[in-house]
Amino acid sequence: MVRGHVLVCGGTGCHSANSDDIYDAFEKEIEAAGLKDEIQVIKTGCFGLCALGPIVVIYPEGAFYSQVQPGDVKEIVSEHLLKGRLVTRLLYQETVVDENTITSLDDTDFYRKQRRIALKNCGVIDPENIKEYIAFDGYMALAKVLTEMTPQQVIDEISKSGLRGRGGGGFPTGKKWAFAAAQPVGDKYVCCNADEGDPGAFMDRSVLEGDPHCVLEAMAIAGYAIGSNHGYIYVRAEYPIAVKRLRIAIGQAREMGLLGKNILGSGFDFDIDIRLGAGAFVCGEETALLNSIEGKRGDPRPRPPFPAVKGLFGKPTIINNVETWANVTRIILNGADWFAAMGSEKSKGTKVFALGGKINHTGLVEIPMGTPLREIIEEIGGGIPDGKKFKAVQTGGPSGGCIPAQYLDIPVDYENLIAIGSIMGSGGMIVMDEDNCMVDIAKFFLEFTCDESCGKCTPCRVGIRRMLEILEKITSGQAKMEDLDTLENLCYFIKENALCGLGQTAPNPVLSTLRYFRDEYEAHIVEKRCPAGVCKKLLTYSIDPEKCKGCTLCARNCPVDAIVGEVKKVHVIDNNKCIKCGTCMSNCKFDAITRK
Amino acid sequence: MSCKTCTCALVGTPEQDKKLRESTASLKDGGSLVMVLQEAQEIYGYLPAEALDVIAEIWGCSTESVYSVATFYSQFSFSPKGKYAIHVCLGTACYVKGSGEIYSKLKDLLDVEDGGCTPDGKFSLDACRCMGACGLAPVMSINDDVYGKVTLDQLPGILKKCN
Question: Per-residue pLDDT for chain B (163 aa), expressed as one digit of tens each?
Fold first, then answer.
């Protein structure tokens, strides 16, 4: 009789921090303690609170152990599992009430305001075991659709729910399906876009790693709705764990007759193949993705014709991203009204965000649409580390923008983010503090898009490079104020004239920082100064004569002998020789060196 | 396989050649060129010019068209990687936490350029876009081992462990 479960996070974050070793150690110690028949060890998907990984949760108590090391496992087994005493020092401190009492995880700041729908099963079930998925209502939605609903009813239900594409564009999902369903009967395809390219977003990966069946089930539902028998999942090769679990899931679903011929005796056939991406950001754009699935260069195609009319292999195709798929089964089971009751007027349901950068609780959070940014960053995210001051939050990755402090109270939804010059994007949310230079961040994103531009259209291929050159001039102190006008004009030109989404949105990081942080650009140009102290070519180091003790440590470590001074006398930096490496500053024991 | 233009040493072993030919032929139906290239890179560790010729021959297309696809994707490499392949994440979450400096420091320490390999074949260095371990930023990996919350001071020690 199993009396307890040990859930070990097997998501990429915790996996990178050796959670596999922790899993093995639990198996070994539990066997040694003779508890093998009583305690079950399960490797789950992501719990979300990656900052505290590796994470282990033990039920029925719901004890949330954080930053567990393999060496801690013996103690957890002997204390918690054998004697029933919590190992307080390893518990997530927010859940600790006293010596042997804990509160529910749902009462902590990080989880309290979350509403987990797309992430419902992540961190709950064993993703490599289809039976666990089925035990949590898995494949019930598919069964309901096949036995009780017509294809049109399925499309109506999805349309009524108000679900919009979670990959960035926010196109109504039901409408997309309806377009494809209206095409003449024949070969049609259902695609899952799992080419999560925004560097800093990892919700799609977490869904695939933690709950792969929910994507398969949703794709089969869409196949029934539009009259398609074949699906493709296009997933990044950089996500090996997700790929492995998807393969296992597809194999198990086929074995149980939930994919393949005549599913559940309904006469409906549907099967899914995986295609691995090969590292090209533009392949997240739907027409480029289709070319890539076909094995060609991932060049985008002009639209129209839209994929719903002429997509994969020239046939009608729908493409939705992973998080969108993850909502479908829940909508079918709970009803469109249930889903539409969450969120804001035009953005229904929840959205998963990947919190990263200068924030205490890095990780994945799922919140109802319309939650104010401030709540996400200050309450759920736990604020900025080291008492630093918030400067901006970047949403939408290379296609999005930086949002300054004055807009922290806006409710997050598709329209509001566009109105302030950013986009929802796939849900990356990178927090920046006073130490980040906004010109440098704009340059970082342009380097990215410049590198990832496929080269097919001139505005993107040439225009972005010209923009990058101007930003390089600015960050090295060689720009004039006129360059800012040229930069801005280029932004609007590229937005209007580029062929696909990559080029059309590439200027956003520059436009939004120009809009809200123009003073930083001007400081670089006029005063030849980087206010955040990031742009190396504009920095000057100096020694505070009041604090310098003449210990000579800086002079001895300077790689170019730019510091002169005698023992026990104030030292001076020769700025003509200084290469701004910062070695002196990190070596000084008296905080005597300043950087401006 | 033979080199058409010169008498240089053949690339790879006969087993690798056999494997390449088999998988290229088997993917001709229902597979795609990207999948063939992924297989080839799996077999050789990179894409040797001769392998691309073999693929073109079996698929009945021009070598140029194979190159056109292979050069498009950053996953494909045309030169061998080091025994220890180092990747530094330059995704946004890692970048705002200083991974750019980690990358430059490694370039200095190893004396290699972007995507380069040390002359002894021991280390290669590449930047990559988000490994999805943003909670551990800044992140780098050496082969399959991931290093999180890396600081500049730790780098010499991390490299020393590779022997």
Answer: 444 444 444 578 889 999 999 999 999 888 899 999 999 999 998 999 999 999 999 999 999 999 999 999 989 999 888 999 999 999 888 998 999 999 999 999 999 998 889 999 999 999 988 887 888 889 999 988 889 899 999 999 999 998 7
DSSP reduced 3-state for A319:
strand
Closest CA to A566 of A541, A549, A586, A579: A549
Residues 6+ apart with CB under 8 A from A419: none
Interface check A174 vs B, CB under 8 A: no
- Domain A540-595, classified CATH 3.40.47.10, yes or no: no
A231 touches chain B (CB under 8 A): no
- What are the residue ranges spanned by the domains of chain B? 14-70, 84-160
Q: What 3-state class would DSSP assign to B59?
A: helix
CATH number for the domain formed by residue range(s) A4-107: 3.40.30.10
Cβ-defined contact of A199 to B96 (cutoff 8 Å): no
H helices present in A19-92, as ranges: 19-32, 73-75
- For an interface test with A, the pick among B35, B39, B41, B72 (most A C-beta atoms closer than 10 Å) comes out as B72
- pLDDT reported for residue A145: 98
Q: Scanning the structure block, which residue is given the tokens 């926010």? A: A170
Length of chain B, in residues:
163
Cβ of B75 under 8 Å from any chain A Cβ?
Answer: yes
Q: Global pTM?
A: 0.92
Instruction: Please give the Cα distance from A361 to A111 (Å, whole number).
Output: 11
- Residues 1-30 on B with a CB inside 8 Å of A are none
CATH for B84-160 is 3.40.30.10
User: What are the CB-based long-range contacts (under 8 Å, 24+) for A256-260?
Assistant: A256/A130, A258/A130, A258/A139, A258/A142, A258/A216, A258/A217, A258/A220, A259/A216, A259/A220
Per-domain residue ranges of chain A: 4-107, 130-339, 350-433, 438-525, 540-595
ipTM, 2 dp = 0.88
Cα separation, A208 vs A194, in Å, equals 9
Contact A16 B35 (CB under 8 A): no
CA–CA separation, B145 and B143 (whole Å): 6
Q: What are the chain A neighbours of B133 within 8 Å (beta carbons)? A: 12-13, 16, 50
- A 469-498: CB under 8 A from B: none
